[in-house]
Structure formats: structure tokens, C-alpha cells
Amino acid sequence: MLELFTGALLLSLLHATIPNHWAPVLAVARAEKWPLRRAVGVTAVAGLAHVLSTVGIGLALGLLGWQLSGRFARAAGWVGPGLLMGIGVLYAFSGRGHTHPDSSPVRLRRSRRRVVLGLAATMFLAPCLEIQTFFLGAGTHGPAALAGLMGVYLLASVSAMCALVALAHRGLGRLRLDGLARHERQLTGAVLVLVGVTGFFVDW
């Protein structure tokens, strides 16, 4: 179970650092000359919207994993790790990283509320699907494990996004993270495969 939480944490932090998760909010914040507190607050709202749509899918998959584990207890020990490895390999060779819809069409002359809602809606409509295998695996351990994994994903993703916007807003290091976007799928695939391999040697 520890490998699931560790893998989910790594994947959450990895995806949070991809610029398309937080750069749109930063761009609007700079254009509107928002103070740091407001920029971070809007990032938290957009990040929560993104996480909620992802967790909604994950909840369904986790409950499915819970039901399947009761029926196929013997297979649960190798099906979960096998899925992670298979999806990880496919993901690593599937091209460039996933993208979120461009938030630039949001008109900055609109009210602040509409801008925030537009950013939140953009993030909500583009859930991260890569984390879903972790939810499925956590579901085989029951509702408590699934809830814990969701908590890890929520806290890690939103906190990292807010921290990156805060650092970039202050101009610290100018945050050159574009290179991560080019290798996102390979890094994600590596995390999935690593957690899957570990699952074969420990109690899944």
C-alpha cells in the first residue's frame, strides 16, 4: 500500500509542475495585476476544480476495485501491479504530455468572477487520467485507503500549484519548467512502471 501512496504523491507533484496546470492562472494574474494573495487564492480554486473532476472519476474506479477485490482476491495481488506497468509502458510511448484547454480566450475585461469561473471550468473539464490506476489499486484495499489516496492527491496537487504560482509571481528563479512538459509522458510512465514493479515484491 505504501508504494501506491508514494507513487500517487510523486505523480501528483510531477503533474502539478507542468506549466499548463498553473501558468494560465499566473498569466491572468499578471495581466490583471492581482496581488500575490489573490493569485494564490484563484490558483487554489482552479486547482480544486481540476482535482474534483479527477477524484470523481477516481472514486468510481476505486469502488470498482473494491468490488473486484472481493470477488477475485487471489488475482488482486498481481492484476493491480500488472495494470500499472502496462499502462505505464503504453503511456511512456504515447507521445507528448496531456494538455489543458487554453484559457487565453477568457476576456480580461469581464468581471473578476467570470475570469475565475472560466479558469476553474477550464481545469475542471480536463481531469488527469494518469492517476486513475492508483485509485483503482487503492480501491482494492477498501474505502479508507481510497479516501487516503484522494487526500494525498488533493493536498499535493493543489499545494504544489499554489507554491509554483507564488514563486513565479515573486519572480523567484523565473521557473523554467517547460522542459518537463516535453517529457511528461515518459516521466509519468516511469512512475507507473516503478510502482507496478514494486507491487510484485510487496503486499499490494
Automatic annotation (TrEMBL):
This is Urease accessory protein UreH-like transmembrane domain-containing protein. It comes from the Bacteria. The keyword Transmembrane helix applies. The chain crosses the membrane at residues 43-64, 115-138, 144-167. Keywords: Membrane, Transmembrane, Transmembrane helix.
